[in-house]
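User:
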Amino acid sequence: MCVPACGAAHYTCVDGVSTDCSVANDPVHCIDCGCADARLHCVRDVGCLPPAAVGESCRLDRDCASRNCSTFAGVCRVAVGSSCNTTNCDICLHTPSGATHCSRECRSSADCRGQACVGSSALLLFECRPPDCAGDVCTVERAPHETGQTCRADSDCRSGACFAASRCSGTECTADGWCAEACTAEADCPGGTHCVRIPCAAGQTSACGDVCLHACAEFVDCGVYGGTCSALETPDRMLESVCDVRRPEGRGCLADRECLSLSCVGDACAP
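Assistant: Predicted structure:
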């Protein structure tokens, strides 16, 4: 009898055999099969667990009791609108009165628990904003991103180095990349990163030289955030696969550091 491949809808792999989820009956397979109790969330290779508390790991908002899973750190944050600091919230807003409101990146007001979801339609970048912060009167404090986590600017990263390339729509621009930090060997890098060599462009002082970069196994690990999965040389002349944001000849750029050739001429990477 022919059966769908492992990972097809309602099927999972049990000892290498494609098995209907109704037969597998094992919470360890919840990544493919989901949880029978909608109040629970799935943790890979563990099973179905109650909603996670603030600081515990998550993949989706529904994994968290607060319904707020960090978009870059993979841990639960306090609920949007709650009092906050940068240890429990991605974006902590400080009002002129001294109150704090937890914000986050959003796709619609449904992500914001009644707050507005505002930002750039051109760049598809939005954040929750409470009425108290209308007119940009609030001070914004952002949680630092660790090495290997996504970033848009050096200031996002605890290391002060964001390995990123620009993304523009009309006159609006941002950048997409991953936080990096200096290293001398693989042992210097946190889990999920590799120590590789990135040539420095003229005047470049961050995210180049020997640096820890986000590890990858295939394109989907990097492509969603503007990179490609590339095998780069390590300090000991081995090759490791990491997310590389640098661009080939002809691709758009705003700075030399964004090009494999280290030369950006007329908004395009030169040979």
